[in-house]
Amino acid sequence: MQEKIIILDFGSQYTQLIARRVREQNIYCEIHPFNKIPELDSGLKGVILSGSPFSVRDENNPVPELDKFPKDIPVLGVCYGAQFLAQVNGGDVYPSETREYGRANLSFVDTENILMKGVSEGSQVWMSHGDTINVPPNGAKIICSTEDVEVAGYQFDNSNIFGIQFHPEVYHTKDGATLLSNFLVDICGCIQDWTPASFVDTTIADLKAKLGNDRVVLGLSGGVDSSVAAMLLHKAIGKNLYCIFVNNGLLRKNEFSSVLEQYKGLGLNVKGVDASNKFYTALADLSDPEKKRKAIGNAFIEVFDEESHLIENVTWLAQGTIYPDVIESISVTGGPSATIKSHHNVGGLPDYMKLKIVEPLRSLFKDEVRRVGKAMGLSPELLGRHPFPGPGLAIRILGDVTAEKVRLLQEVDAIFINSLKSSGLYDSVWQAGVMLLPVKSVGVMGDERTYENAVALRAVESTDGMTADWVHLPYEFLAKVSNDIINKVVGVNRVVYDISSKPPATIEWE
Ligand code: XMP
What gap in Å lies between CA 14 and CA 79, rounded to an integer? Predict the structure, then answer.
């Protein structure tokens, strides 16, 4: 049975970070909303209660049904989690005089305590709370304090239930990894056997058992997620995996042929379908970003549906959905989250396709997907590729899309991306691309006045695409790229660099 830690989410901005820190210790964990405790099995080793934007004193504060967990299961409450456990067990939680946010230092540490082993006195911790536990809960002893917060951590007597007011998952908490490891390994008894290689082995075995001799169809995009998902399925069911790679005419320069070759080289059973004209027709005269996305989405579904009907007896659709897609689609507060751009895979299956869904990467973060890919021997080139949006260059061509504009943007994009690669900058950038602007501007070439297109280069750093900052590319590099573009691509006479962060901007312009 796979050992597992459950993180109950009360809506903290740091919940995903807790999951990452647990997994960094080679321990599998899952995040669940506080009010949706999943079915439990004997693999459960411990529970972590996250922080929250709510106060335990709020009228509608989140209240988990902790008695659904086995009585002796170790529990670590973090921030709100600690305040909640304190409050329901006779402790006192008060609003702090001042909201405590930022660095503090531990002025007292009970070094004999199993949770605090190796955490040193004076060690820096990261606080972020508006409430403080003034009086520890009944039957609990204080295990650490800061100057301002006496009950910075506590343990219930004779039990493995702990609360800490600071955030061990944040890097600024110097001994945070030690504290988490004490909880996970010494208290919960985890054996830390969750590695990329073990994930590959168990997933292949699970896929074999689940799919048997069934046929599966998968849409490859050339990106990391669908490629890694395909390799796992390929190893599990071989030729029963039918991959379809659609050229929507909106890919990067030469990408369709080069990626198709790469897939064939990996032994995948892949069919390349050139449907460029269908997509250009669907996009004709559309300028609105959401209408463009919808038109592309619909065209893709049509092509994909047509192609999958050509495969006899196919019963499964495989998708490269990853964990952030899954948790983003769950809202802790139950309210609908705003749709900023319609680009999530979850729930996007048209009814008439009537296929069962298999998502082998559903539990992994992006960097874990890359490590799994590496464990299966996928090339660094494929695994290191920048994310690229499904609607491709169509949402980087502002306004209406034509085959000619795509060709122009492909040329410019290729110069930018190849220059990043040849200067050794590509891997330090999370995502880069070029926007073709719906503006013409005046320039001069030789003795001639020109009136041509402007393009905007975009390069951002990010960890998950949710927030991003523009990369401070060297001026010399930008100067050379700009020069190359204007000299080599007929039709472009001006290059600008986008220095907006997300938020308030987004990565793509549409
Ligand atoms: P934004 O522009 O929302 O982009 O900051 C965040 C990340 O999502 C990608 N993106 C898309 N991916 N279909 C996709 O598959 C889309 O419609 C889409 N829009 C944006 C974007 O490239 C970035 O990685």
Answer: 11
* 19, 56 Cβ separation under 8 angstroms: no
Residue 221 alpha carbon, nearest atom of ligand 1: 15
Ligand 1 atom having least distance to the Cα of 293? 17
- Return the amino acid letter for 246: V
Of 247, 248, 255, 200, the residue nearest 228 (C-alpha): 200
Residue of minimum CA distance from atom 21 in ligand 1: 389
Q: What is the pTM of this model?
A: 0.83
What atom of ligand 1 comes closest to residue 390's alpha carbon? 15
State whether the beta carbon of 507 lies less than 6 angstroms from ligand 1. yes
Evaluate the CA torsion angle 54, 57, 63, 67 in order and state its sign: positive
Residues annotated catalytic, as ranges: 79, 167, 169
Asked if residue 328 has its Cβ within 6 Å of ligand 1, the reply is no
Q: Cα(508) to centroid of ligand 1, in Å?
A: 6
Q: Which residues contact 165 (CB under 8 A, 6 or more apart)?
A: 79, 82, 83, 127, 129, 132, 133, 149, 151, 152, 153
* Tens digits of pLDDT across the chain (510 residues): 889 999 999 998 889 889 999 999 999 999 999 999 999 999 999 999 999 999 999 999 999 999 999 999 999 999 999 999 999 999 999 987 766 678 999 999 999 999 999 999 999 999 987 899 999 999 999 999 999 899 999 999 999 999 999 999 998 999 999 999 999 999 999 999 999 999 999 999 999 999 999 999 999 999 999 999 999 999 999 999 999 999 999 999 999 999 999 999 999 999 999 999 999 999 999 999 999 999 999 999 999 989 998 999 999 999 999 987 777 655 555 433 333 444 444 445 554 467 899 999 998 988 899 999 999 999 998 999 999 999 999 999 999 999 999 999 999 999 999 999 999 999 999 999 999 999 999 999 888 999 999 999 999 999 778 789 999 999 999 999 999 999 999 999 999 999 999 989 999 999
Of 508, 509, 510, best ligand 1 pocket probe by most atoms within 8 Å of the beta carbon: 508
Mutate to test the pocket of ligand 1, among 319, 343, 430, 434 (most ligand atoms within 8 A of CB): 343
